[in-house]
Amino acid sequence: MTAIDHLPAEPVTRAPGLLRRLPTSGVAMCGLALILVWVLAAILAPVLPLDPPNKSFYAALAHSAPSAAHWLGVDKSGRDILARIVFGARQVLTVAPTAAIAAYLIGCPLGLLAGYYGGWVDAAISRLCDVILSFPIIILYVILISTIGPSVLNIVLAVVIAASPGIARIVRGLTLEQRHLDYVAAAQLRRESAVFIMLVELLPNCRGPLITDFCLRIGYTIITIGIMGFLGLGLPPPDPDWGTMVKEGTVMISVHPYVSLFPAIAIVTLVLGFNLLADGLRELALKE
Amino acid sequence: MANDDHIRTLTADLEAKRVSRREFVRFAALVGMAAPAAYALAGTITGEPFAPPAAAEALPKGGTWRIGTRIKDIKSPHTFSWGEQSNVARQVVEYLTMTGDDNVTRPYLAESWDVSPDLKTWTFHIRKGVKWTKGDELTADHVIWNLKRCLDPAVGSSMIGLVKAYLLNEVTGPDGKPTTELWAPNAIEKLDDHTVRLNCKLPQVAVPEHLFHYPMSILHPDDKGVFGIGAQGTGPFELTEFDLGKRAVLKRRTGYWGGDAAIDGMEQIDIGDDPSASIAALASKQIDGLASAYPSQYDALKALTHLQYYDVKTAETGVMRMKTDTAPFNDARVRKAMRLAVDREALLQVALRGLGSVGADSHCSPVLPDYGTVAIPTRDVAAAKKLLAEAGHPDGIEADLVVPNDIDWFQPMAEASQQMWAEAGIKINLKPIPGASYWDVWTKVPFGITIWYHRPLCTMLLGLAYRTGVPWNESGWSNKEFDALLTQAEGTLDLAKRKEILAKLETIMEEDGPLVQPVFRNVFSFQDKRVKGYTAHPSNYFFGWMIGLDKA
């Protein structure tokens, strides 16, 4: 028997079966239920008995409050608020996870490289992250979107630029923690490539905290998209955007509060869903 | 003294009911009849009392009027392009004439004027005893310096667009580019220290109104066209503080020729683009009123019981204008298809909550006295598609519409129009941009929405924006027949004939013009009930000397 036979061939997973044990967490299930409501609404929006989200009902402008015809009322252009919220969920639930995944695709490799190699690679990546993170986040979004213009792609790009340094830092910390463990040494002795070690050995062992962070980050991204919409930097009109809807309603909030209130509730419930899910996952990981 | 021939013509028109009393007063005042006399004569002819706007009430003294507006750069009054700029300067520097909220033009720094029977020779009598801030008297030389400066192409004033037809010639400049110069050496002539004559090459009835165009303020020549703190003026206030984008503070000047203002001063405060911010400022009484309110603010402001509502019907509008040298808008059939595809009544409701009137793509509003009656186009999607097909676009067209986001009713108008155009196979992508950025590109973008404030005559608007080659012709549209008819209309006092010509001009705009212009908005404002003397001016102008403030 050689020395190498004493080393574990398989990495030690930190949170085995985390997702399988999800049903045991009431908090996580509450969050998941909220998310699923919105996911179902988004998927079924075209077949639900809703008005077209961009259609103006001119006759409804005179009586814009919630009514039998328009359950949540109409906005200042006479568009059905319920339809715009439901169709807006499609945008949010597409853009936010896409942006979060894209941020992870950038942030994870950077963090792995920094944590695994250390030295000047770590220093260079960490300083780059420091520079981006030193900008106030909202100002960074405003600068980015004002420069490149509001569009789905550009919002994703802005989130990636703003969020990936934070992800890189988390991954770097986890990698630093892991890289001296035996399973990494075993892989090195097996002459596995650095890329293999980082992606196949290290990254899966970081997944517990990262899954939690991913859920939280989707929530943050939803808030970010809402803020950008509120600042007039949201998705291009006329497609519904929850943040823009909140903003458009503020001018009449003293007399028609529902115009802002309902899309704000939509944002709150969806973000709450992701936060509860993240809390539940964190609890499960800690129990492990 | 008014020209008797013109007054006789107008009187005959009124007696024959070819013109309304209001139109009579407006044009009688333009040709030099004192407005009170014109009102009285109109009442006598028709046998019905016809009162001028209420005389200024005895205003309470003291206090500072705080008004929410936008504070823009004010350095160069002769090239102002925003009414808000002029609202700061107009408290300090004044105009030869003044068009009131009733659209009647009255004497101001010019105490009277005469016009020749052929409407070519206008003689302005400058008010005597008007003192500049430093004590010297306003003279004809000062007035002539200002007139010539505004008409100098190197300055770039929009006055050129207004007076080009009757005071300027088109020439080729030293750089080979077209430019303008006074049509004759004596086009602007000094008769004596208080008399200035304009010798026009063509008849023009609206000269006094042109002299109230907001860049045509009378500055002291020593200031070399630059305005700011310490600038001289003949007006009732002095500018004491100015912070771009924040506020302008004006203090009452003693010894004003028109009598000292009732208020101690005024503070114009920049309230930004956010309509909800100005609602909050009014609700918390941080400001006493708004220079102008938006349709989206109407319900919220109406609910504030300490505010008084003021409104006036106007020719203010947002034109969705197409650059006529850029495809696909270089084809008149495409432009007409764009117009046919929109439902004006629906847009009036969506964009302005009905607080306005529909337009016919000519920029000429029925509230203006020289409006020629034309039919309002009805929506016809099939006809729009047919025109597009004829223009070589059987599958429709696609274009971007640039929407400045500082005018809150533009976005709903653009969004609703987008839906309507889509039904005609016209795919329009909305490109919202900050209002400030829009003014860098307003004459360049192929398709954009531009705000145009009220002017008292259709001919003024058409001359400013659609005559070939003038500085504010943002669409680059050029139509020789239109230019010729416009010049003819400007020199026609006979109202019935003038309206006929205007109807032809409006029809040309509808068939060939560069606009989709579906609505005109009412200008309205809210002021604290303790503000006295305020009236909503159709051009969003306000005058501190008209204002008094009850004690809080």
UniProtKB/TrEMBL annotation, chain A:
Residues 89-278 form the ABC transmembrane type-1 domain. One of its GO terms (biological process) is transmembrane transport. Signal peptide: none annotated. The chain crosses the membrane at residues 27-48, 92-116, 128-146, 152-171, 214-235, 255-278. It is found in: Cell membrane. One of its GO terms (cellular component) is plasma membrane. Its main location: membrane. It is a multi-pass membrane protein. Keywords: Cell membrane, Membrane, Peptide transport, Protein transport, Transmembrane, Transmembrane helix, Transport. It comes from the Bacteria. It holds the Pfam family BPD_transp_1. InterPro entries: BP-dependent_transpt_permease (IPR050366), MetI-like (IPR000515), MetI-like_sf (IPR035906). Belongs to the binding-protein-dependent transport system permease family. PANTHER family: D,D-DIPEPTIDE TRANSPORT SYSTEM PERMEASE PROTEIN DDPC-RELATED, OLIGOPEPTIDE TRANSPORT SYSTEM PERMEASE PROTEIN APPC. This is ABC transporter permease. It comes from Lichenifustis flavocetrariae.
From TrEMBL, chain B:
The chain crosses the membrane at residues 24-42. GO terms for biological process: peptide transport. It is found in: Periplasm. It holds the Pfam family SBP_bac_5. InterPro entries: Peptide/Ni-bd (IPR030678), SBP_5 (IPR039424), SBP_5_CS (IPR023765), SBP_5_dom (IPR000914), TAT_signal (IPR006311). Its main location: periplasm. Signal peptide: none annotated. GO terms for cellular component: ATP-binding cassette (ABC) transporter complex; outer membrane-bounded periplasmic space. Keywords: Membrane, Signal, Transmembrane, Transmembrane helix. One of its GO terms (molecular function) is peptide transmembrane transporter activity. It comes from the Bacteria. Coiled coil: none annotated. Gene3D superfamilies: Dipeptide-binding Protein, Domain 1 (3.90.76.10), Dipeptide-binding Protein, Domain 3 (3.10.105.10), Periplasmic binding protein-like II (3.40.190.10). Residues 106-452 form the Solute-binding protein family domain. Belongs to the bacterial solute-binding protein 5 family. This is ABC transporter substrate-binding protein. It comes from Lichenifustis flavocetrariae.
